[in-house]
Amino acid sequence: MSRRTSYIRLAGAYARHQLRRRLRRRPGGDVQRLLEMYAPDRLLPLTEAERELLPAASACINCGLCALVSARVSGLRPSDLAAAYLRDYPLLESAASDLAGDSAPGLREAAAACPVGVPLEGVLAMIRRLASA
Amino acid sequence: MALSAAPSTQDVVVIGGGVTGAGVARDLALRGVSVLLLEKNDWGAGTSGSSTWMIHGGLRYLEYDWETTRLSQEDAGHIVDIARHLVHRVLFLVPVLPDDPHGIEQVETVMEVYDRYQPLKHAHPHVRLTTEEMLAVEPGLARDLVGGVTVEEWGVDPHRLAWANVLDAVEHGARALNHARVTSLIRDGSQVIGVRYVRDGAEVEARAQVVVNAGGPWSPEIAGMAGQEVRLRPAKGIHLVYDRRVSNFVISAEAVDGRDILMVPHGPITVLGTTDDDFFGDLDDVEVTPDEVDYLLQAVARVFPAIEHLRPVRATTGVRPTLYEWRPIEDRLSRRHELIEHRHAPGLLTITGGKLSMYRLMAEETADAACRRLGVQARCRTSEVRLPGSESEAPTAAELASEHRVTALGAANALRRHGCRAGAVLQDARQGRLVCRCEHLAEAELAHAARSEQARSLVDAFRRVGLAAGPCAGAACVDRAAQVVGRELGWSASQQVDAAREFLLGAWLGRAPLLERRGWAQEEMAYAGRRGYTA
Question: B34: how many CB neighbours lie within 10 A of its CB?
Fold first, then answer.
């Protein structure tokens, strides 16, 4: 097939598209269908608040200073939260058992010790939300 | 240089361990042909590894050849079928801005046509979204959109894909050697009858009835060893890598010159690229320039301003073996491939051009040509035989974690790399300890990479199991990693120190162009940790 033929076929598709648009409802209302389609793949949207948190969370360089200050979070080092868990959102459901329990003592102190200002409490909340959403 | 006492003899030698060369070796091995696969660096270390990590179905071909789109989609579907544990869905958000050359109706028309072929690769149809819906799905997008559409493709780790092909070839009788550089072709008159290669300081001869040149951008150099000309128009492409998913969705953007730029999430990282520039330099020494970084970020920031506040952790660069053509700008060059049966150097085949998504088909065509020369009748089976790790149902991450005393995150990562074989990889429970905390990489998995996956350096381990791919770029784990790999490979203490230093130097070279992008804090930590290694 030549480029000319392709353009002619695309032009035909465009004409049919315009006709269908005139007969159908206005765009909108399909976002729920989209999210349901990709729910098995755990392709979830971030919330606006999470999007705003992400630059500070992604500043983590895994220096480990927070681990010197804070007790462990469900058996994990606090540095694991931003350096390991808050990286791969679709995997968090599978990894949720690592973060079982509500105990997270000393995260505020750990965040205060962080040289790049990672908001550890917010990071943990985001991880738990994405793991269970 | 010492010459090995025992030259080998096989039906076919394949030069080049990118995904195409590995695919050729696998295809031939599945047909019962004896094969030797040689790679001068590591599996997938060249063009394959520096791609955008996608198996896509040829949307752009709708502009000039719908049949090519159909073929691309069909073959992408084959790859998804045989490599199920290595692929993942990537959902594009294609934002349309008010001044875009193609309005949203035109963009959606193309997606409607593309939808006809999407079932071939097991993908969902497109969805059209209003501006508000686009922002609900991805709040980091610019506010001045007129709407958008989605389109689905598949993502893949090209290093693991290349290795899975190598492994399957080996399990079907092939020999495969990385870090084995071909130095010359052996000829009998004009006939090519084998190769000489260097590995571990010794030169070895390997005789064969057919030699396949799958050297990617290096293929002209290899063909030149037989006095043959292969004309390419090599194109340099860089990518920026972020240490996490910037978004759960692919963001499609337009660069200042109208080219498409993509920001693609793959597992725990994001790959942003690519540039596309004619390249005339040394293929083994390709650098990233600050201008290229600015070009990519400018494009993405136009539709995704949030990118300016995130820290890229490294840049990768590679050269595409684009077929030679005079006049078109780089981006308009065809991505088609070409199989050359050198008439004046019988016994030599060159497969070049193409793209990652078409590797299996390129391998099939090449193996068909080799089999014609060998008189082998066996048919290609690479579209139906699953790759190692995808043969059967894998356990869940929780089951694997509980059985092998690793974290569920570490188990989930291992499943993505090894599929149903992850349990065997993690079977040494005494090594449940983590070596790389950014990746939650268990020592057992790293040791397995050195012992059973031909990782001969820490950089090889980075490709094979993601060692040090996270926020600290190895500063926290490289010493321990050198001990684990060194124990498997018999390194002395000083060899372990050298390996760690070599790895960190390489990591620094990939990071240096990005330091002005929020990179100095990490650099200070890395430097503080390594002062003992400086001269």
Answer: 17
- Establish if B515 touches chain A: CB-CB under 8 angstroms: no
pLDDT at A103: 67
pLDDT in tens, B148-202: 999 999 999 999 999 999 999 999 999 999 999 999 999 999 999 999 999 999 9
Partner A, chain B 222-261, Cβ-Cβ below 8 Å? 242-249
Look at A88 and B110 and tell me if their CB atoms are within 8 Å: no
Q: Closest chain A residue to B113 measured between Cα atoms?
A: A13
Which residue type sits at B142?
A: A
Assess contact for B219 and B350: CB atoms under 8 A: yes
pLDDT for B74 equals: 95
Tokens of B335: 């991505």
Q: Quick check: B532 pLDDT over 70?
A: no
- With beta carbons under 8 A apart, name residues in chain B contacting A28: 130, 132-133
Q: Cβ contacts (< 8 Å) between A17 and chain B: which residues?
A: 105, 108-109, 112
Hey, how many other C-beta atoms are within 10 angstroms of the C-beta on B430?
A: 8
Please calculate the CA angle B495-B501-B502 and round it to the nearest 5 degrees: 85
Other CB atoms within 10 A of residue B20 CB:
33
Q: Give B186-240 as a DSSP string.
A: EEETTEEEEEEEEETTEEEEEEEEEEEE--GGGHHHHHHTTT----B--EEEEEE
Contact A63, B423 (CB under 8 A): no
B88: chain A residues, CB-CB within 8 Å: 41, 90
Answer yes or no: do A33 and B521 touch at CB < 8 A.
no
A2, A10, A30 member nearest B129 (Cβ): A30
Q: Specify whether the CB–CB gap between B240 and B293 falls below 8 A.
A: yes
Chain B partners within 8 Å of A64 (Cβ): 476
Q: Give the Cα separation of B333 and B319 in Å (integer).
A: 14
Contact A62 B310 (CB under 8 A): no
Tell me the C-alpha to C-alpha distance, in Å, between residue B325 and each of A127, B67, B160, B234, B235.
50, 22, 32, 11, 12
pTM as predicted: 0.96
B148 vs A: CB within 8 A: no
Chain A neighbors of B272, CB-CB under 8 A: none
Q: Answer positive or negative: Cα dihedral of B464, B39, B210, B357.
A: positive
Q: Do A96 and B269 touch (CB under 8 A)?
A: no
Q: Are B118 and B57 in contact (CB under 8 A)?
A: yes
Burial of B285-314, coded b for 16+ CB within 10 Å and e otherwise, reads: ebebeeebbebbbebbebbbebbeebbbbb
Return the closest-CA partner of residue A66 out of B476, B276, B347.
B476
